[in-house]
Specification:
single chain; three-stranded antiparallel beta sheet; 12 strands; binds zinc ion
Length: 205
Amino acid sequence: MSGQHHPSADILAAYASGVLEPGFGLVVAAHIEGCAQCRRHVASYEAVSGEALREVEAAALDDGALSRVMSRLDSAAPISFTPDRRPFVERLTLKPRKWVAPGVWVAAVDTPHARTNRVYVLSVAPGMPTARHEHSGAEFCTVLKGAYRDELGLFRAGDFAAADHDVNHQPVVQGDEACICLFATEGRLQPQGLLGRLAFAFADV
Ligand SMILES: [Zn+2]
């Protein structure tokens, strides 16, 4: 996978320092796994964090202070994955698929996330129009398979998209295979049309 659309520097820095909500971190991880450029950025942010830590050490703190900082850093480490050659989508633990329209299914991802957020995989068959929709909060998306196009351009496997409540978009699947995307969504979608059914499917996700 080689992406054309990458997370912003702010998102990568937040990921590197472990402060992203875990569901959103998973979506960033899905991009980073296939993107050498973003892996380098994350490594450089982590190196900066290490430098800051050495400065803390030089400040002659009491004996326990550094180990307390270290253990906090350990517990906040970004999600990492053991080497596994299977495609990312096959390594996710999905709850049962729910068909929300012909050619369109959604499945929640069994992964830690904030209760108010949703982490899910959405698969849309070629030729299926997706409804224009808005967001009530932030949304991260990484394309796992296939491609879609919207107002922001063409998104292929590995590409990352972040949207907030200002975005009102209508993705269209490109090519002849289903487009499968991993999403983390904050709050509720503002459904219109098809997404209304999607919202029902999410009610117990
Ligand atoms: Zn990237």
